[in-house]
Amino acid sequence: MADGGASLRALLDTVNTLLRQRRYRAALAVLKGFRNGAVYGAKIRAPHALVMTFLFKEGSLREKLKSIAQATFTHSRNLAYFVFTYKGLMALQSRLLGKKIPLHSFFAAFIGGWLVFGENNPINSQIIMYLLSRILFGLSRLAVEKGYVPQPKQDPFPLVAALLWGTVLWLFEYHRHTLQPSLQSSMTYLYDDSNVWHDISDFLIYNKRSTNK
């Protein structure tokens, strides 16, 4: 038993020594990026999938749990693959050219995005739309910082919020099929299901009346 403990400590010391070696830093950063991508993807997707599945999806408990597990695995895997690809290509470009330039980041992420997130499925679609909204905000702020767009005299956020809500509800009411399925489900729950009730049970307690009533 003592020999086993000593062997484990020796193994840990060897691993820790390896992790401190600067010559392996780039490769180890790629591996830790894969790890962090997998963990972060699971943390983000699991609670979202749990809520959306139990709120809007029909089926048995087993089917719902399977759906949650699949969505969590897909998000976690894709983010891990992307971080691994991005950091690997960044390290490769830096090693080949001897320096890091801004275009390297775009190129590495472009390749990673094409390979990992290029398939049009619900998980990737949600991630891309999440990124799109953040990118538009980021580019708007950058345009102001660089002087391409004059600094607004008033905070434009209220106008942006009003335009976005006006547009999305117009699309929901008259062109619903153009919206992403999870957004359709959320808005159906909020704006359509709230128009229907039969008694106190499905007015305050439940969203929909039980089908056996």
How would you characterize the overall build of this protein?
The protein has 213 residues and is mainly alpha-helical. The protein folds into three domains: 10-118, no CATH class; 120-151; 155-212, no CATH class. The chain has helices at 2-19, 25-56, 61-97, 102-117, 122-145, 157-174, 181-192, 200-205. Helix 3 (61-97) runs antiparallel to helix 4 (102-117). The radius of gyration is 24 Å and the shape is flat. It starts with a helix and ends in an 8-residue tail after the last helix. The model has no long low-confidence stretch (mean pLDDT 88).
Q: Quick summary of this structure?
A:
By secondary structure, the chain is mainly alpha-helical. Helices cover 77% and strands 0% of the residues.
Number of domains: 3
User: What helical percentage do the residues reach?
Assistant: over 70%
Tally of extended strands? 0
The percent range for strand residues is under 5%
Largest sheet: none
Main structural class: mainly alpha
How big is the Rg? 24 Å
Mean of pLDDT? 88
List the helices and strands and how they pair.
Layout: H1 2-19, H2 25-56, H3 61-97, H4 102-117, H5 122-145, H6 157-174, H7 181-192, H8 200-205
Essential attributes:
single chain; 213 residues; mainly alpha; 3 domains; 8 helices; 77% helix; 0% strand
